Amino acid sequence: MRTPIIAGNWKMYKTPAEAVAFVNAIKDRLADLKAAERVVCPPYVALPGVQAALAGTDIYVGAQDVHWEKEGAYTSQISAPMLVGLVKYVIIGHSETREYLGVTDEMVNKKVKAALAHGLHPIIAVGESLAINEAGQTKEFVDRQIRAAFAGIPADALSNIVIAYEPIWAIGTGKSATGEQANAIIGSIRATLAELYGQAHAEAMRIQYGGSVKPANMAEFMSQPHIDGALVGGASLQEDSFVELVRIAIEAKGLG
Fold first, then answer.
1. 94 carries an active-site annotation
2. What gap in Å lies between CA 173 and CA 171, rounded to an integer?
3. Domain encompassing residue 28
4. What is the CATH number of the domain that holds 71?
5. Which is the catalytic residue, given 37, 96, 128, 166?
6. How close are the terminal C-alpha atoms of the chain, in Å?
7. 9, 43, 213, 228: least surrounded by Cβ within 10 Å?
8. CA separation for the pair 87, 109 (Å, rounded)
9. How many independent structural domains does the chain possess?
């Protein structure tokens, strides 16, 4: 059984003080929900405070992006060495970075390699636009994203990587894929990984779903065999809903 992983992507929400208050409020409530891995990904400026507040717990911290160079004249960017000691995970290739910051498939691959080189665990986000979805080209599009992201990544690094399938049309829109639809695409991702690395590695890989995930639909996704967790946006910003998402994930997988 792959351990479910629920990661909250806070995007550009919560000041450093608000972020610390939030994790202080949820850490005791999550203490007994150890059957799922729990991750919070606050803005960069909140990382030190959140990391300190969660020290001694088994709740992990993630960053929302990373640059592929370790240092240099890259105004506004954060490198992997700057994140070491603050986070375990880093989200790479989220559709909002692809759309607003011009992140390409090639950049995603470079970011993944940089993160791995410094002991960070990438959460690689992939997903299609509404136009691609309606054209029936989702599997082909996501397949290309996966192959590009994993180019040159050795099999022994796979245990440190999580994939998040996030259809762009479902992010922040209130729309979401059905559990069956998401499971089919994630199953296709797993088939691509099997081509690249073999069936055993593909079966071991954890793949999340993301896109308007909330407590009301969490069980539908987590009951699917290929879906191993969720990368959650808005619903991760409220204490009750984030805790409930973790609880539902554990129950749906029969772990609690």
1. yes
2. 5
3. 5-252
4. 3.20.20.70
5. 166
6. 13
7. 43
8. 20
9. 1
